[in-house]
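Researcher: Please generate the 3D structure of the following complex. Treat every line as part of one assembly.
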Amino acid sequence: MTEDRFEELLGPYLLGELSVEEERELERHLEGCSGCRVELARARQSHDLLRGLAAGGPPAELKDRVLAQARGEIPARSRGGWRLWVPAAALLAIAILGAGLLWAITQGSSEGIPLTATVPASEGGGEVSGEVEGGNLQIELVVWGMPELRKDEYYELWYAKENGGRISCGTFRARPGGQTTVNLTAPVGATSYPEIEVTREPDDGNPGSSGEKVLVGDLRDL
Amino acid sequence: MFGQAVTGVEDEELIRRVAEGDDRALSLLYDRYSRPVYATGIRVLGDASLAEELVQDAFMNVWRAAGSFDPGRASFATWLYRITRNRAVDLDRRRQARPLSAGEEPLRSVTGGPEPEGGVDGWDVARALSRIPDEHREVLTLSYFEGLSQREISRRTGIPLGTIKSRTTVALKRLHRSLVNPAAEESQRD
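Model: Done. Output below.
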């Protein structure tokens, strides 16, 4: 057997897949070949890590449950809405207010920002909390009692201004029963928009808001 | 399973497809990362059923929020780790709303993740696996995660047994390199 051939057998050796004769021959070679011993040590590290990872997996049927649930919901679409162009001067003008609101979201309230239902979702409610990571705000939205959506609808979270300006933070659907928790991302600048809205949106390709508010929150109430 | 073109795709491309509603892409990401998510659940929640709930919640968050993933900010593994960490905290909060059962412990600190301070955990291995070539990932996945013998892998893939054996060895070495020197593995892949 050649040097290269011995080296090729290291993987099957670790897996216990060599014949008795092959194994014996390889082990004799390893005693005298430091290069192959180094390669074996490297391969063994990968082997041990893979075995550890494989041993700790979730039950196989869980994957079916996750995929079945996913197929019953549309995913959030990649959208450009929250990347709306905002003039730099306007950003500067609202920076002080924004800093205060950002503090409110990330530090000022351990309970997060409460969202209250509008009439169409009288039993609904929610809460928004977030933390700054990198240049963005990582938002966690918890909702409950949300009205059931049609298949061609979804919910969308917005930061909004009184004059109608909005930044989308992402879309989602609620679970049967109307509750869910989702993680969304928004630019830190979004926190200068003092209102939070969850709207019901038709899946018609229009990135703008339908204006059909389901939940609303106001950072200025804190 | 690995015959479809999508299997060789990197995480960031898969998550883009998830955002378009491709559940096959979600399935592949699940195959790659459900184990470290589950292991995190076991480690920090100390309860198998809560760890399963964590896996389900985390991947449903991936499905729902795929459109907000920004590859310029973080890798998919890092993004998923944050989701996992946040969901684990939520699950623990919910558990704290009821009395602990005998032997049940409160949340352990969430450490590790795709960029750990030291050592190697399941997140690193999953991420390293995603970086090696598809043909190498295939033999390792079939061998370690599906428990197939080298001969069974040969039959399943139609590749000669001798090639499977040598490919397994090369794959283990590539995985090792991907773990210790991710940048080199990325550049070789490119």
